[in-house]
Amino acid sequence: MRRHRKGKINSPDDRTSLCDITDGQKVVIVSMHSGRTLTKRLADLGLTVGTEIKVIGRTLFSGPIQIEACGSRLVIGRGLASKILVELK
Amino acid sequence: MMDEKKINIVLAGQGNTGKSAVFNYLTGLHQHIGNWAGKTIEKREGTLFYDGYTIDVLDLPGIYSFTTYSVEEVISREYIIHQQPDYVINIIDSTNLERNLIFTLQLLELECPIILALNMIDLAKKKGIMIDSKKLQGILNVPVIPTVASRGSGLTRIVDKVIELKGNKTEHSIHAYGKEIEDCIQQLSVLLKDNDLPYPVRWIAIKLLEKDKVITKQIGEKYPEMPEKVKQLCEKLEEIHGHDSSLVIADERSHLAYQITREIETIIARRKASLNERLDAITTHKFTGYLVMILILGGMFFAVFTFGNRFSGEFDKVFKNWYNWWNNTVGTSFPAALGWAAIESILALVQIALPYILPFYIMLYTLEDWGYMSRISFLMDNLMHKMGIHGKACISFIIGLGCNVPGCLSCRIMESKRERFITAVLVTLVPCSAVSVIVFGLVGKYVGLWWALGLYLFALIIIFIAGKISSKLSLGEPVELIMPMSDYKTPQFKTIIYQTWDASKEFVFIAAPIVVISGLVIQAINLAGWMPTISKVLSPVTVNWLGLPAITGILLIFGILRKELILVMLAAYLGTTNFSDVLTPQQMITLAVVSMFYVPCVATISVLWKEYGWKKALAICVLEILFAILLAGFIKRILDFVF
């Protein structure tokens, strides 16, 4: 559906969880494993497979991470972020 | 006919879109804030008199979709479907167009008449985002009006449009999903054609495919064979797309929003980062962010307490005169004394509301309107998570530092019942301004400032431990933080005043009746001469276990009314305000610890009662009394070694 937004999907090894991405990097969502309710919630905010994300920053001691997607910013808890798999753009 | 001049409109939109600013601008002083029937969610209604029309305006809660994720979402969709407002004004944050359009698409599926307000169009321009509103109007087939709610610009155009279009049947363009989904919708629509539910057929079909619990249940009751059919279709979709059918639909909707946005939005390369952006980088930075937070919050409390103490002192003088006047003219008979007790309770409320709570609210809402509260949630989420709740709870804690009553009320921002309750319990342990009066007036003044600050740190640790325990006890998974982060905005004076006014009003209405009643009861007991007996009965606890003077038993009972009474009455009974003459340092600290935790004040108890039922309210009180007495006793024994 969103092929134009998707980059080429490489081997599974390239997939990392969103919380392991360094600040300032741009990534594309590859898959989401956060359960139906939360994944639906994220989709309502514009985060779906294929969405481009820029990691903006995070707080100390594995706190939440701040991202930019679809032109707006979003804060996501670290636990949830770890369930979103992404690959570098 | 009168009816023809009546219109009702509804404001709908996501959070932080300036919805409240629109509402305040349209309704001004003609607004009424209540609760949705049977819910603890605010219902904001108002009236606008314009061009001979009476326009009723309802402000729906800020939501991100029409699922059943939160009560607000259910309330909103039920209202739109059942009340059939003449127009739904969808307020959109132009700086976050794509995300906002996802909501608009869902609103369109409800097939209600819509006018789109492209709000904050000035901020979008500043960010270099150009939006072709004519084109958007063409794509969505609904009127689109650019607005700047904070200045009121464009808002009369909306009202004009509502009046102009009133009575005209609007045709919506249907936004088609992918072929497979449309097939499913088509099949379901045929089967549902003759249903007598108030919802649009296409919407029901979409909701069934989205596995909406409420709709699935309603349809299942009428069409027993439907769930099986829906299940088949969902499985078919899942087979094609590889994930849950509800996500397939949400995916396509957000993709549609993406496409529309690309078509109507041009982004112009920007000059250097704006002041707000640079501020944002500093205030959310992993080191400077915390520093700024401590400075801002610390400064805020310092300001509130300096101002409050002075102002409150002035009140004391005035009220003392009134008291003397009352005694001289009305007398000191039993009814007269009871009468004064009632008046005093009201005065006490004024004395805490005006000098402490009002300035506190003004600063709090200034921070909120600026956009700083979501930064605090972001910075504190980690710590809050260790207590099984998330960053937003921190806002309730901060409000609780001013007063526990609005603190507990603000727990409504938490998503799940479980978190609402845990947060409320923890808020009751947060030292409010009344407790701070005791801590600083007793410990801070006579034992040392560091001891007083130490007590705050101690309270923080206790709250943390209590949070850990209560999150272990209450079953259910902790909810993860998902929070849109909006840009900093110039705080709007009008919005701040409105919010402060609402919150103060709520505080007075909830607290006043219960404070007066309990004031009367305690005074009656006092006048009946039972107090010495009570202090004797309590003396095994107060004297033997806590090592305090017997009189404190009575003080602690009065303290339930409002906690700073403990200090005020102590001075009255002892006939001196120099507490160091009569209390040892360890007694002062012990008394401060008991006052901090022993029970929420009556006003807070009444909120807990209202929000969570009397059983839970009572349980919290009993637990906290036992806990505070135990804790203070141990602390006394430790302090005996120190001093």
Summary of the model, kept short:
The complex is a heterodimer of chains A (89) and B (643). Chain A has two helices and six strands; from the N terminus they run E-E-H-E-E-E-H-E.
CATH class of chain A: Mainly Beta
Based on Cα principal axes, name the global outline of chain A: globular
Number of strands of chain B: 10
Helical fraction of chain B: 55-70%
Fold and architecture overview:
The complex is a heterodimer of chains A (89) and B (643). Chain A is of the alpha+beta class. Chain A has one domain: Ferrous iron transport protein A (FeoA) (SH3 type barrels). Chain A is 15% helix and 35% strand. Chain A has a 6-stranded antiparallel sheet. The longest helix of chain A is centred in the middle third of the chain and has 9 residues, at 36-44. Chain A is globular, with a radius of gyration of 12 Å. Mean pLDDT of chain A is 81; it is low at 1-11. Chain B has 3 domains: 2-165, Rossmann fold (3-Layer(aba) Sandwich), CATH 3.40.50.300; 179-267, Orthogonal Bundle (Helix Hairpins); 288-484 and 491-642, no CATH class. Chain B is elongated and about 85 Å long. In chain B, helix 14 packs antiparallel against helix 21, helix 18 runs antiparallel to helix 20 and helix 19 packs across helix 20 (449-473). In chain B, 65% of the residues lie in helices and 9% in strands. With 643 residues, chain B is of the alpha/beta class. Chain B is built from 27 helices and 10 strands. The mean pLDDT of chain B is 86. In chain B, the strands form 2 sheets. A 7-stranded mixed sheet of chain B has the order 2-3-4-1-5-6-8, sandwiched between helices. In chain B, strand 5, helix 3 (97-109) and strand 6 form a beta-alpha-beta unit. The chains are: A alpha+beta (89), B alpha/beta (643). Strand 5 (72-76) of chain A pairs antiparallel with strand 10 of chain B, so a sheet runs across the interface.
